[in-house]
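Predict fold of Secretion system C-terminal sorting domain-containing protein; 329 aa.
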Amino acid sequence: MDEKDTGVLVIGDEIPNSVVYEATPALSARAVNRWTPNATTLLGVISNWMTGQEEWLWATVTAGAGTDSIHVEYTWNGDALVYGENYINAVALESQAGITNNLGFGTPCAGNMMTAPIYYLDGVGPAIAWWDSLPDDTTSVPEDSLFGPYPIQASISDFNGVSRVVLYWNDDSVAMDNVNADTFMAEIPEQVVLLGDSVIIDYAISAWDDSYDMNISQTSTRTFYIYHYDPGIEEEQNKPGIPLVYALGNAYPNPSKNHALFRYQLPKTSNVRFDIFDITGRVVKRYDFVGQEPGYYELRWDEQKAAGVYFYRLTAGEYEATKKIVITK
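Predicted 3D structure, encoded as C-alpha cells:
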C-alpha cells in the first residue's frame, strides 16, 4: 500500500532541550491541515507513550475545535514517564469523509505521525535527613593545644543514588565516605588552639545525585567554638582581694561571631577608658568609668558589627595595653 502525505500534521509545542523534571508534565501540540483548497476540519489527535502506554488515547482539545488548526494537551490517563529517554507519538485525524478531503478518498485520513523524544531527569537534589550538630569544645589543660578530630555523620538518600557528598568547614573541605546504606561520614581534623585562644568552626554539607551530577542539596551552616581557657587567669580572677598589677586579658571567643567578652584587672582606684576600634583607627565602641575601684572586671560586647579585624585598648591611670580580636560572619 502506498503511503500518502496527507498534509495533516501534529506540531509539538517546544520543550527546551526536550527535558522535563516531572513524571507527568503538561505536554501540548498543534494539529494543522495544510492542504488547500480541499483542507478539511480536524476531529482531534490520538497519542500514546511508547514506554508503557499501550493504547492510543484521545488528546484533550483546548482550542480551535472543528477547524483546520486545533490545540491539544496530552492525556496521561494514569501513566507517567520513566527516568531517562521517552518517546511521545501523536497522530491527527480528519473529522469527515467524502470526496472533498485532501486525497479525495471516501474516508477520513489519519495525518502523519509525530514522534518526539522527551528526557525525564531528576530535578531534585538528595534528601539530607539529619547531620551531626557539634557542641562547643573546651579544656583548661595548659599543655594540651590539640583539639579534635571531630567526626561528622549524615543520613543522605536519593532516588537515583548519591554520587558524592562533601563536608565543608571554614576554608577547607573533605569528601564524606558512604559507610553504611544512607550514612556518610567524614571528620574535621585536629585544630591547634594555643592557651588563652579560641577558634570558631563553621561547617556545612553538600550532596550531589547520580542524575548527571546536576542536582545538589546544601545544608545550612552550623557553628561550634573551641576554647582553650587559661587557668591562670581563671584562678587569678577567683582569688579574693586586690590584684597586684594592671592587666588586660584575651578576648573570648576570638575569633568571635555574636558576642565577645573582655577581662581586665585594676590594682588601685583608676579612671578607666576601654576603646574598641577598627583597622582604620575609628572608635566603634567606648566605655568610660570614673574612679573604678580595684578588682577584676568583665565587659561584654554584644552589638552588631561588620566582619573584620578590630583592636581593643585598656587605659587605666598610666597603664595602657592593646590587643586584637577578629569578628567573623
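The chain has three domains: 8-120, 127-228, 232-327.
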